[in-house]
Design a protein that fits this description.
Layout: H1 5-25, E1 32-38, H2 42-57, E2 61-67, H3 73-84, E3 91-94, H4 104-110, H5 122-130, H6 138-149, E4 158-162, H7 169-177, E5 186-190, H8 197-201, E6 206-209, E7 227-230, E8 234-237, E9 245-248, H9 253-256, E10 262-263, H10 270-291
Helix pairs in contact: 1-10, 2-10, 6-7, 6-10
This protein binds NADP nicotinamide-adenine-dinucleotide phosphate.
């Protein structure tokens, strides 16, 4: 069965739009997300554009700050400081990757934790590890929401995650090993040094794939009846397509689909949920500012 990220993200967005209507009806301004885009990488442009468009559709305000590829790190940090100090803005994301001359760690640390709706600031990452209320990185948060809304049993299951990035694999492993629902999995976190990867993936009740290699996971690597979550998005050249490329996941969908109980498509799966989670975090940031109370989000 397909885990339909488009359908579920549309549901989430409709709920958020209703929350915004109520916020505004109570005399508050709507949530405001700012995004900084450095350079003009095609994929980054697409991601930022769809985040901004999603904001508009559900009644959020948004600001897109475009900086040239050659911007200095100091100039970028100054922009971040300006948004940090702007009381009219609730959430700030800096689209990654950044040009090589800019230190990503210094940049993510500069976004104040209260506006860090991507959940990349080390303070928010630390809170996530401790199970405290915080902004959870959008992709793993979106996956948790998808598992939840499809009522997929996770307790006692063996979850294998491929990829240990700070934004996907590592927080994913953390969230699913927690004593919570979804959660309570026994988690194996695999990476490029894992020996005999297939021996692990074949044991997975839930297989989460985030390594960035198109169609890497084949049917022989998957257990019958597994839940497969495909995070990967790779542009693969295709001259028959008007854009010149097609998007591929990390899972060979055509041959894996018939073997599993649930699977996410690419596109229309995790990517959609990532945007929905970012919007959830932005509303949370807004509510925190309205009430000065730290709301707990659903994966806290
Ligand atoms: P990343 O930073 O590129 O890291 C890739 C991870 O995969 C690393 O931990 C690496 O291991 C591991 N890896 C690489 N080759 C491997 C192999 N042959 N066997 C096992 N592990 C291997 O990852 P990311 O930023 O999480 O991105 C992963 C993919 O997800 C990309 O396609 C990206 O575009 C996509 N993505 C999608 C969304 C979405 O919203 N759908 C969001 C974020 C990312 P080492 O640590 O040992 O190098």
């Amino acid at each position: 069965m397909l885990l339909d990220g488009k359908k579920i993200s549309d549901e989430v967005k409709a709920e958020l739009a209703e929350d915004v209507r109520q916020l505004v009806a109570n005399g508050h301004r709507p949530p405001h997300l700012a995004a900084i885009l450095v350079g003009s990488d095609g994929a980054s442009e697409t991601y930022v554009a769809s985040k901004v468009k999603s904001c508009e559709k559900i009644g959020y305000s948004s600001t897109l700050v475009r900086l040239s590829e050659n911007v200095t790190e100091q100039e970028l940090l100054k922009e971040i400081d300006a948004i940090n100090n702007n009381a009219e803005i609730d959430g700030l994301i800096v689209q990654l990757p950044l040009p090589k001359h800019i230190n990503e760690q210094r940049v993510t640390e500069r976004v104040v934790p209260e506006k860090d709706v991507d959940g990349f600031n080390p303070i928010n990452v630390g809170k996530l590890v401790l199970g405290l209320p915080t902004f959870v990185s959008a992709t793993p948060m979106g996956i948790i929401e998808l598992l939840k809304r499809y009522n997929i049993e996770t307790s006692g299951k063996h979850c294998v995650v491929i990829g240990r990035s700070n934004i996907v694999g590592t927080p994913m492993a953390n969230l699913l090993s927690r004593n919570s629902n979804p959660g309570n999995c026994t988690v194996t976190l695999c990476h490029s040094r894992t020996k005999n990867l297939e021996a692990f993936t074949k044991q997975a009740d839930i297989l989460i794939v985030a390594l960035g290699k198109a169609e890497f996971v084949t049917a022989n690597m998957v257990k019958e009846g597994a839940v497969v979550i495909d995070v990967g998005i790779t542009r693969v050249e295709d001259s028959t397509n008007s854009r010149g490329y097609v998007l591929k996941g990390d899972v060979k969908f055509d041959e894996v689909e018939s073997k599993c109980s649930y699977i996410t498509p690419v596109p229309g799966g995790v990517g959609r949920m990532t945007i929905a989670a970012l919007l959830q975090n932005t509303l949370l940031a807004r509510k925190n500012r309205v009430t000065h109370i730290k709301y707990q989000n659903h994966v806290s």
